[in-house]
Write a structure and sequence with these properties.
heterodimer, A: about 170 residues, alpha+beta, five-stranded antiparallel β-sheet, three-stranded antiparallel β-sheet, rod-shaped, B: about 140 residues, 2 helices, 5 strands, about 25% strand
Amino acid sequence: MPSRPGAGRRSESVSAAAVLLLFTLFMLLAVGVLTAGLSVYQRVHGAEERVYLQRSALSYLANRVRQADAQGAVSAGRFGGADALILRETFAGSDTRYYTYVYVYNGQLRELFFEEGVELPPESGTVLMPLEALSVALSQEGLLQFSLDYGQAGTGALTLWLRCRAEGGEAP
Amino acid sequence: MKRRLSGASLMLLELTLSALIFCLSAAVCANLLARSVTVSRHSEAVTGAVFAAESAAEHFKAAEDLGQLSRALGGRLEGAQLTVCYDDAWMAADEARYRLDLLVSRDPDSGVSRASIRVTDGQETLFTLEVARTAPFGGAS
């Protein structure tokens, strides 16, 4: 049976339209997958940064305290208008006391090491990591409580018990 | 009679095949992305659990008895077990997103008091910690 005139051309047009439709669908799907991937990546990256900040800041503070834990060597105080962790130490053969202040200044966790009697401004501390606020409190039982504000990354808290605070510096 | 495929039909076939392969790859990628979110959330929860357990252990070492420990941690005491509930931000709360169980026991021979700390998210254990102290601890069985 002979085909009607123009039927072949119509079939070609339908095929071309189908190709165009499929291609559009393909592109939309590709963009959708890319957008979803980007969104997930940003989310995972944000979470990783939060975890990194929390882990680093709290582990750093815990290690600093453990390292310096001697009778009367760890205390809480104020420096640069904010709470500070104060570590005191002396070195063999010298009566001079040295202090390390760990505090937050200008949105940065900082550490400042200096000799007793020397007065230094808070901006001279070494910058460690970004941190909005640090709160340090020492209870009578020797519990040192840290509260950290990471800004958009949330908050964190840690309590440490000073083992050498007890008379004689003995751990129970 | 042989029918020859036109250029448009060939392209349609090729695109259909490409779309199928792409859909398969997209499904695999979506699965991986979903898993990465789960792993990331778990990692965040474990980090919080580690510091919550560490703080509880430090409180156990500093406290004189279970009552003082319970007050300090803001938990609920049932026998020798203390339960503390935390919200998403790891603050002690009534509605539990995370739960810390601290079970105290005492070895009568050595006099050592031990605390088994377990932090869960309601379904699985995130972190466990064993801690001991030689100083007397009231309320330990």
